[in-house]
Every structure is written in structure tokens, then in C-alpha cells.
Design goal:
The protein contains 35 helices and 17 strands. The chain is of the alpha+beta class. The longest helix is centred in the middle third of the chain and has 25 residues.
Length: 856
């Protein structure tokens, strides 16, 4: 194709857009007039119009990929040896569709970087600069050890360039050509590619050009995926130019894409989802195993046909020694229909990790089996006779309490480590049939107290108590543990562990195994869970998860956002960390009420919670936290009461001592009118988590919903006395006073709460003013709430409805309640049982609203 100068391209672009805006019947005359002396130009414009109308997304961006390719076909200015800002250009690393990539020395920070320049031909093109900037922004989102990092974007001396991490090593295609990869190493690299894709997909970015030449492998076999961000900006392939060399390369807009690594839907020009990257991953993994691309042929037509129609040759035909699981995984990745592939990269990662465990297990398996197996069988018969005698002794159950480890480091910021370590050890032991271990919630109240093991044994009905203390600094921590027999106070075991830095990562398992060993438990089938219980895959993720759990326990406006940040960081470090996803879901579900802040709308919070909960369940179907989170989503977002109840029951079935499952299940029981069951379930949740003000509040509130005001009032008196700073307890106590007609007491509480936080207490204060005849005060609160909503806060619509109820304005109250129902504002589900709504219950519109909640 004839090369075009920048002004020629701008003229072509102008003609194209002008012609496209005209009616079809007027275009020919317009082009004939404008291109009277340039037939070739007219043909190019007509070809572009034809292509744009055939492909819906061809012109999704406001410029033409064909012109981009034409303009960038000229080489950019040679920059080697020049100095731009703080960067000295050392050498050319390679060419790209929009410009060149150079190695440079950053004089300011003293490091080598890669600079990706926008082609000099495109510097004046504002659209191209926007796309270039978008690439930098997209890649900068992806902070992951297996993705090439973007440090920044600069415009200096007429040059626009992205500053990227310089990765020293070989391209994956060069590594493959050496044919030196062992199956375990192939798997190690494949897991890194999938982890990078998982990070991208979590940010809504599809790579669309995964191939070995876009992947760097360092000397220590760390893998870096390159060229993220570009492919997200375009949708459809454009046609190759007339003078394009015969190869397997096709231009995807201005982004080079290689045909032999494309998915069928990519070649068909269909809309793409994450499945296209999974297909491309399968092609790359196949090539890592066999040394050749499964679809590549001598010409493009045959390659395209092979991808669309043919099945790749069995990979074991060229690599017979690989595990059979490789072939099964590849077959699923390379399905022609995206719906038949892995439905997420996380699902693929789980499969890869399972194969890795299998390979590691086979590597450790002894090579001899026959002679020694026969001898072992004889010995086994003898052991069976002996074991029958001692079995009942060794399998006796033990009741044990792991008390919160004391933080004696002098650094209060390390409280999360002592709490998290305690909770995780309890979690690892809780699934064992021969151990009855008290939940963390039942022992957390002993933190900071003087410990009398024998008294604790009587209080908790346990025969073993384990406690310990952390000392030192974070990087050189020491954990001292002691096991006490509560019957006579004798010391059964004591030990110390290094717990600083990466050592902490292994401490919980070491302590758990020591406890099991000292209790002389016979390792039954479910005791194997101790070694396979889900956990983080690296110390940093583990540390971030414990921080998230620490802040989540406070459950207030200040700490919930902190918990979210730490859970997200844990997931970034380990995309397969199911418990971190469950923690993230538990945090987001709290953000749909005014009490926990307004950093997200109800819809945004619940969408994020649902994604995190489903991911947690996908990663670990036996995680009670995941089932509980899914139940909360069905309860709060979808109002699907049967499915919510099913999920909570499943969580309780997995771990009957999991207090949050009982807590949330009591909500569903109350909402659906089963008040006696709700009281029982909330009492059980409270007994499992007796030191938590939240479970105490839930227990007291169950009497309020059951219209048992006497017991509710007495219960809240105890709650507020035990937790005087717990504002949510004071809030519901005020509602109890309203229900009993104690308006002065209710007003006193709500005015105090409103002075501290208008968004969480304005509704009930305005309501109370309204029903007590203080109309002007109620309207003043209403005005302040409206100003707050317009200024900065996403005040839920139900809050305004409550004020209008107090004012007796049912029309506006129902209008706001209808809006709350449309947004699926979770607390609205309690209107059937909350006495606060009694004043509008007789209105015909109430029945319609009630039915919209899908309540029985």
C-alpha cells in the first residue's frame, strides 16, 4: 500500500467521517466531487465505509486502524544517544505498531528502564495520543509480579513515551526453542501466565495477544507478561495491507496480533470476553509442551481454517512423557466454543495448582513397591490386631481452647498478628473430628486478662488450654506457647518458634501439628484436612489477610475501608486466596447501610460483594465463609430467601461453630416471620461469639422484632452497659424506646447519635420529632439530610422515607420506599417485622411493597 504523510491521512480521515455521516444515496456524489482528481483516494474511503458497516465495532474508536498502520510503517526518529529529561537513551530494543521501544538509563533513580515512544508520525494525532495514554493507564492498574510494570508517562521535547520496567531475560519463544523445559517447569511458567491474566481480568482488561514473544522469562524463571492494555482498546481485526509480508501476523487495529494464537471468536470478529485469553493461553501452553504451535500452517488461510475447524493433534503424540492431565487441561482450553472452556482464569489456576500437587506427589513417591509392599502387608495385619486394642484410647475427643496470644512486643500495630495467628490456628483445628476447639469469638474476650487455666477450663468446659505470647520485632518475632491441663493445672508442653517475616507464614501449621502431636490423636481421614486447609501461597498475602480480618472485626466506618484495602492486597498477591475473597465479600455487604459509610452505592457494594463471594466459593466449595457470603448476597441483594437459607445451612453443616452463619441465618428467619426460630438462632450465634457486641445486639434485636418489648428492653440495657461506646446498640435501644412510647428517652439517644453522625441517625431523629409534634425540627433534620446527600453522601432512600413517615406524609414516604425497593436496599426487607413501620402498614400500598420483596 502506498505510504501516506500525516496530512494525507488527516484528509482521508476527514473524508471518511464526512461521507459516513451522509445518507447512503448521497455518498457517491459527495465522493465523486471531493475526489475528482484522485480515484485511489476515493476507493480507499469507500473500502473503509464498507468495512465499517460490515463490522459493528470496527469504528468503536474515533480513528481508523488502517491509517494508523500506514502512518506507523515509517520508522521513527533514531533516538540512541539522546537525553530526554532524566533519561539517556542507550539502545533500540524493538519496534511496535505505534512506535519504538528503547533501553534507557534513568539518571534520577539510577536504574535501567524501557521507554516506549509514540511514533513521530503520530505525535500530532490527538486520538493516537489519547490511546497511547490509555495504554499507560491500563497497564499501570496491573500491579502484579508477573506483569511488566509501568512507572509513568511523560511528554518531553516533542516526544511522548511510556516508562516501563526493563526486564532482562529471554522471550518465552526463545526458551521453547531450546527444548529444555521439564513438565514441572512448564507448569511453573504456565501458572505465572495464568496469574497475570487473572490480575488483568480482575480489572476488566482482556489481553487479546497472548503469545510466547510477548512473555519474558528471567534467569531465575520469573515470568513477565508484556503489552497489557493495548488490546483492550480495540475490538475487531482490520484487513491486511496489500504489501504485508506472508506471515501469521494480522493487525488488530494498530496492535499486532498473531493469527495462530487467536481464538475462533477473535477471528470471526465477534465480541470478546475473557475466554479468548484462555484459548490463547492453551495455544502457548501446547507450544511449551510440544515445541510447536498446534494451528500454525504455511499460509494464513490454512491457519485460520485450522483454528476454526480442526482439532489440534494430541500433545502426547509429540511429548509422550508429559502427565495425562496436561492433555485434558489443553483440550478444555482449546474448545472452539468459549462456553465450553474454563469459565474463568481462576478456575484454570485451580486446575493448574491441582496438577502441580499431583506432580510433586509423584516425584516424592518411592520407586520401589513390590517386595517391600508384600512385607508391609504382613506388618499391616499385625498392626491391625494391635490397633484394635488401642484405637478407643487414641481417638478420644479433646475439648481445647486456644487463647488469644499476647502481644508483648510493645508495638500495638502488631496486635493483628497475635489475633490473626490465634484465629488461624483455631481454624486449622476446628475441622478435626477428634478435637472440639472453641471458636475465636468465644475466647477473644480473654485478651489482655490475667489467665487462670483451671478457671478458664471450668468456664469454657475444656480440658486443654493453649496460650502464648509474641515478643521481639516484626522481622524477628518469637512465639512462646504453653499447653496446660485444666484438670490439675499441669504443663503438658511448651515450645518456642521463630515468627518473624516469612517464618510467620509457617508458624500456624507448625503449632497446629505440635498440638495434635501432644494430644496423641490418631490421624483419621478428616485429620488430613489439617495439611490441605486453604491458605495463602505466600507470606505477604497471608500478612495482608490477617490485617484485613483484624480491621473487619471492628465493623465501623473507619475500619471497613481498611479491611477492604488489605483483602484486595492479599488477592493481588495471591489470586487463589479463597478466604481473602470471602473477607472482601463480608466487608462489601456491610457498605449498603448508612452505619458503615457511604463510599459506595448499594448497587456497587453488592455487585462487588457478589463477585467476591462467588469467587471464594469457586476456589473452595468447602469454605463456610464462602457459603455464608453467598447466603448474604442472596439475602441482601436478590431477596432470594430460600437460596439464602440453603447457603447458611450449608455453612453450618460444614462448621456448626461458625458464628456468622448462625448470625445471618437468624436474619432470614426473622424477615420471613419465624420469630421463635430467629430468637433461637441468634441466641446460638451469641453463645458462639459472646464477646462480640454485634452478636449481642442481634440477640437483643430478635426480641424487638418478635414484639417482646420487655425482654428487648432488658437485653439492651445490659448491652449498652457492657459496651457503652457501641453506637449501633444505642441506636436499636432507641427504637425499642419508640416502640414502647418512651419518646423522651428515644429522643435523647437519637440526638446524641445525630450530633456524632448525621447520616446514620438523621432518619430516626427526624421520625421521632415528627411523631412527637416537633414538625419544624423534623423538617430541619430533613433539610440537613438532603443537603448532606447532595453534597457528599449517598444517603439511602429509606432514610428519607422514615422521616416522611414521622411527618405523616405517606405519599412521599412510599415514593422513597419504592425507590429503596428498586435499589434492593437490604434493610428494607425488615419492614414486615419492624414496629417502626406500623404507621403505614394498613395502607394498600404497603401490601404491594411487601410483595415486591418476595416475602412469604
Amino acid at each position: 500500500m502506498k505510504r501516506m504523510m500525516n496530512k494525507d491521512w488527516q484528509h482521508l480521515q476527514s473524508l471518511f467521517h464526512e461521507a459516513l455521516s451522509l445518507k447512503v444515496e448521497d455518498r457517491a456524489a459527495y465522493l465523486a466531487h471531493k475526489c475528482v482528481e484522485d480515484v485511489a483516494l476515493r476507493e480507499k474511503v469507500e473500502a473503509l465505509i464498507e468495512a465499517s458497516e460490515k463490522q459493528e465495532d470496527f469504528l468503536e474508536q474515533p480513528a481508523l486502524s488502517l491509517g494508523m498502520r500506514v502512518l506507523s510503517s515509517d520508522s521513527t526518529e533514531e533516538l540512541t544517544g539522546q537525553v530526554l529529561g532524566s533519561f539517556k537513551i542507550l539502545s533500540l530494543l524493538g519496534n511496535g505498531g505505534m512506535g519504538d521501544v528503547y533501553l534507557a538509563q534513568d539518571a534520577q533513580l539510577g536504574r535501567k528502564v524501557a521507554l516506549k515512544f509514540l511514533s513521530a508520525k503520530l505525535v500530532g494525532d490527538q486520538w493516537a495520543k489519547r490511546q497511547f495514554t490509555k495504554e499507560a493507564q491500563a497497564v499501570a492498574m496491573l500491579d502484579h509480579p508477573n506483569i511488566c510494570t509501568v512507572y509513568g508517562f511523560e511528554e518531553t521535547d516533542g516526544h511522548s513515551f511510556i516508562i516501563m520496567q526493563y526486564v532482562e531475560g529471554e522471550r518465552l519463544d526463545q526458551v521453547i526453542q531450546k527444548k529444555e523445559l521439564e513438565p514441572s517447569e512448564m507448569l511453573f511458567l504456565a501458572i505465572q501466565i495464568a496469574s497475570a491474566l487473572s490480575e488483568a481480568h480482575a480489572h476488566g482488561i482482556i489481553h487479546r495477544d497472548i503469545k510466547p514473544s510477548n512473555i519474558m522469562v528471567t534467569a531465575n524463571r520469573q515470568l513477565k507478561v508484556l503489552d497489557f492494555g493495548l488490546a483492550k482498546l480495540v475490538k475487531q481485526p482490520s484487513w491486511p495491507s496489500a504489501d504485508e509480508p506472508s506471515s501469521n501476523s494480522l493487525q488488530l487495529g494498530f496492535i499486532p496480533g498473531t493469527i495462530s494464537y487467536m481464538s475462533p471468536e477473535q477471528l470471526r470478529g465477534q465480541r470478546l470476553d475473557y475466554g479468548t485469553d484462555i484459548f490463547s493461553f492453551g495455544v502457548v501452553f501446547y507450544e511449551m509442551i510440544s515445541g510447536k504451535n498446534p494451528f500454525a500452517h504455511d499460509n494464513k488461510a490454512e491457519t485460520i481454517s485450522s483454528i476454526l475447524v480442526s482439532q489440534p493433534p494430541p500433545v502426547r503424540s509429540s511429548a509422550p512423557n508429559i502427565p495425562r492431565e496436561f492433555e485434558r487441561l489443553l483440550q478444555k482450553c482449546l474448545e472452539k466454543e468459549a462456553s465450553e472452556r474454563y469459565q474463568s482464569v481462576n478456575e484454570l489456576l485451580v486446575e493448574l495448582e491441582a496438577i502441580q500437587k499431583l506432580i510433586d506427589g509423584e516425584r516424592r513417591r518411592p520407586w520401589y513397591t513390590s517386595v517391600r509392599a508384600a512385607a508391609a502387608l504382613t506388618l499391616l495385619l499385625l498392626l491391625i490386631i494391635v490397633s484394635t486394642f488401642i484405637y478407643s484410647y487414641l481417638t478420644r475427643p479433646h475439648a481445647i481452647a486456644i487463647l488469644p496470644f499476647a502481644n508483648e512486643t510493645g508495638d500495638v500495630s502488631l496486635d493483628y498478628l497475635s489475633d490473626g495467628l490465634t484465629e488461624n490456628i483455631i481454624g486449622r483445628l476446628s475441622g478435626l473430628s477428634k478435637v472440639r476447639v472453641k471458636a475465636f469469638s468465644m475466647v477473644s474476650g480473654y485478651k489482655g486478662r490475667q489467665l487462670d487455666p483451671q478457671k478458664i477450663g471450668r468456664d469454657l468446659n475444656v480440658d486443654i488450654v493453649v496460650f502464648g505470647k509474641l515478643s521481639g520485632t516484626k522481622d524477628s518475632l518469637s512465639l512462646q506457647t504453653v499447653m496446660i491441663n485444666t484438670a490439675d493445672g499441669s504443663q503438658l508442653w511448651t515450645d518456642s518458634y521463630k515468627a518473624g517475616g516469612e517464618e510467620l507464614f509457617h508458624t500456624e501449621e507448625d503449632v497446629s501439628r505440635q498440638i495434635i502431636s501432644k494430644l496423641e490423636l490418631w490421624p483419621g481421614r478428616d485429620e488430613d484436612r489439617l495439611s490441605v486447609k486453604p491458605r495463602a501461597r505466600n507470606p505477604e498475602a497471608y500478612d495482608q489477610f490477617m490485617l484485613g480480618r483484624y480491621y473487619w472485626r471492628f465493623r465501623d466506618k473507619t475500619n471497613i475501608p481498611k479491611a477492604i484495602d488489605h483483602f484486595q492486597e492479599a488477592i493481588k498477591l495471591d489470586p487463589l486466596y479463597a478466604q481473602a475473597y470471602a473477607g472482601l465479600a463480608d466487608s462489601y455487604v456491610l457498605l449498603n447501610t448508612a452505619h458503615y459509610g457511604n463510599i459506595l452505592t448499594t448497587r456497587e457494594a453488592m455487585e462487588k460483594a457478589e463477585y467476591a463471594a462467588n469467587t471464594a466459593l469457586e476456589l473452595d466449595p468447602n469454605l463456610p465463609e464462602a457459603h455464608t457470603s453467598v447466603g448474604v448476597i442472596n439475602f441482601k441483594r436478590h431477596w432470594n430467601w430460600p437460596e439464602a437459607e440453603k447457603a447458611f445451612k450449608r455453612a453450618i453443616e460444614i462448621n456448626s461453630n461458625f458464628a456468622p452463619a448462625h448470625y445471618w441465618y437468624s436474619h432470614v428467619l426473622a424477615i420471613t416471620g419465624r420469630q421463635r426460630e430467629a430468637i433461637t438462632e441468634s441466641e446460638l450465634a451469641n453463645s458462639l461469639d459472646p464477646f462480640s457486641p454485634l452478636t449481642n445486639l442481634n440477640y437483643c434485636r430478635s426480641f424487638y422484632y418478635a414484639r417482646d418489648n420487655e425482654r428487648a428492653a432488658a437485653c439492651f440495657e445490659r448491652l449498652v452497659k457492657d459496651h457503652p461506646d457501641y453506637k449501633n446498640g444505642q441506636y436499636v435501644q432507641g427504637l425499642v424506646y419508640l416502640s414502647r412510647g418512651m419518646y423522651q428517652d428515644a429522643t435523647r439517644i437519637f440526638e446524641k447519635l445525630y450530633a456524632a453522625d448525621k447520616s446514620s441517625a438523621g432518619a430516626v431523629l427526624g421520625y421521632t420529632y415528627g411523631v412527637t409534634g416537633r414538625r419544624d425540627d423534623a423538617l430541619k433534620v430533613l433539610a440537613e439530610m438532603e443537603a448532606l446527600k447532595s453534597d457528599q453522601s449517598d444517603i439511602p432512600p429509606q432514610e428519607f422515607a422514615i422521616i416522611y413517615m414521622g411527618l405523616g406524609d405517606k405519599d412521599r414516604a412510599f415514593a422513597w420506599l419504592k425507590k429503596a425497593a428498586d435499589e434492593h436496599f437490604a434493610p428494607l426487607a425488615f419492614i414486615g417485622v419492624d414496629p417502626l413501620f406500623d404507621s403505614i402498614r394498613s395502607d394498600a400500598r404497603f401490601a404491594d411493597l411487601y410483595r415486591s420483596l418476595k416475602l412469604p
